[in-house]
Amino acid sequence: xxxxxxxxxxxxxxxxxxxxxxxxxxxxxxxxxxxxxxxxxxxxxxxxxxxxxxxxxxxxxxxxxxxxxxxxxxxxxxxxxxxxxxxxxxxxxxxxxxxxxxxxxxxxxxxxxxxxxxxxxxxxxxxxxxxxxxxxxxxxxxxxxxxxxxxxxxxxxxxxxxxxx
Length: 165
Description:
The protein is mainly alpha-helical.
């Protein structure tokens, strides 16, 4: 095939196909296997071909019974874990005195230390970090703690300012 002539794509393609035919290869492309989908569907529907036998079906039914029991046990465990009415003993207190003791807010505390106390308390008690049934309680605890820390911060800043003349 000479390269110096300017030719259109169709004639170039025709030359390539004729060269491959001369090489002894099939010019139509790779070999294909004919497959009659309708014949296969007819055989499956006729009943002469069985996809699974009764023993496989029995094993499947037996295994699905175990799955049902396992799923039911998992649902029961989830219901117990998400009990919306936990006992009062497991709920953390929202009383300001208790939270103040937990924060360690006594005496003069530097403002930088108060910021550290706030972060540490939030790390342990933030609503996004507790169990779902404790989130409302955690939100209340965070509000009370922030209020107490803000009050302590105002007192610390007021004491640090020089008196006005």
